[in-house]
Amino acid sequence: MILLGFLFSPLAPAAAPAAPPPKPASQCRAGERVLYTCTFGKSVGSVCSGSGKLHYRYGPLSKPAIDIASAADWSNVRRGGVVGGGSGWQQHLRFTRDGHHYLVFWGVAGQYTQSPGKSWSGIHVSEGDKDLVTLNCKSNAWPSDDWEKLAYDVPENEDPQFDAWY
Predict the structure, then answer these.
(1) How many of the other CB atoms lie within 10 Å of CB of 69?
(2) What are the residue ranges spanned by the domains of the chain?
(3) Which of 3.20.20, 2.40.128, 1.10.287, 2.60.98 is the CATH number of 28-154?
(4) Among residues 115, 113, 112, 91, which one has the least CA distance to residue 103?
(5) What is each CA distance from 128 to 9, 58, 96, 113, in whole angstroms?
(6) Which terminus of the chain, N or C, has less C-beta within 10 A?
(7) CB of 76 within 8 A of CB of 57?
(8) Is the whole-model pTM more than 0.85?
């Protein structure tokens, strides 16, 4: 009985609240929301939302070599995705400049695959119809929970070339 009194005594020290996890590095600037970010070696790829625009930035942290802002008519940004058997799916945001396409993608493997429920994300780069590189995110980064709301104005992809698994 004495032991129970000690365990439930108001004088017993309370457990310290868990510290929130550190925010991942991103290329987003003050006033922008992070839609997606992942570190790829010494570079960081991010999609940021702010002032009615989306930005794709990639390169060394705080010094991106690539910075593409959505045009006023959204002509250089598209959203798309594919669906597979057993509830598998993949979505992407595609930014285009000078014939290069930068697709930020994320997905989940369906129940009929070798790895049901496995998630992945990354960046795929192509020029015209030639695939140049696919960078896979090692930390399984995902877009923010409200990415659909923040990317609401982005038109859907109408080019079947980009209806692919990356």
Answers:
(1) 17
(2) 28-154
(3) 2.40.128
(4) 91
(5) 69, 20, 10, 30
(6) N
(7) no
(8) no
Return the pLDDT at 21: 59
**Coil, strand or helix at 149:** helix
Phi, psi dihedrals of residue 115, rounded to the nearest 5°: -130, 65
CA 85 to CA 111: how far, in whole Å? 8
Report d(CA 131, CA 124) in Å as an integer.
8
SS3 160: helix
Show Cβ contacts of residue 57 under 8 Å, excluding neighbours closer than 6 positions.
27, 28, 44, 45, 46, 48, 64, 66, 67, 68
Beta carbons within 10 angstroms of residue 77's beta carbon = 24
Assess contact for 61 and 27: CB atoms under 8 A: yes
